[in-house]
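Deliverable D4.2, example record:
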Amino acid sequence: MTKDTEIVSTEDTSFEWGSGKEADSIRTLSSQELSASFQEMLKGRNVENGVWVFGYGSLMWNPDFKYSEKTTGVVPGYHRRLCLKSTVYRGTQDYHGLVFGLDQGDSCQGMAFRIPQEYLVTELQKVWEREMFAETYIPTWVSVQTKQQSVDAITFVINPKHEHYVPDLALEEVAQRVVRAEGKCGSCHDYVLNTVKCLHQLGLRDPVLEQLLTLIEYPSIAENSK
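Output generated by the structure prediction step:
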């Protein structure tokens, strides 16, 4: 577990998540409603030592919020999947990309960040503006199994009732979207590649994502391995 002597943020926090006309076109919650949403999540919880947030996609390598501690861990019962249309961050309305959601079954390796109590309101607001402005996810408390202990954390599970949920795409179709799509935060390919690189740097693996990158970069090898 990594503890930092000062509050840190891994990126310049100049990007305004959930903002702009593209985001507004699919926005379903106002900033006030987002605030009420995370406040509801905290009800009945002891937040004296802060709150953990579990990231499994870009939150791992670009959390863009202040935290005081981080650790790798595994969440049982859910797996990482490119199952959510992205028409803002990694795609457009004309050609959507795909971003990760936590879907039912198996398990997921990722990174948990602890936001200290004094920063909960400001930093959870940032997280909610980023992840929840269109209600494509369901904020959920999960148990993260770390090497040292089990911690309760908030993470973002895919909303199976949302129109942008795409659960049954063939790997070849996923690869096509990943290669071509690009949005406000860059290309879908970079998004997937950065996630895999981050996992490797942390000593973690995601065989499905590695298979996807092989299909994209070495299609003949992927075809022969079937």
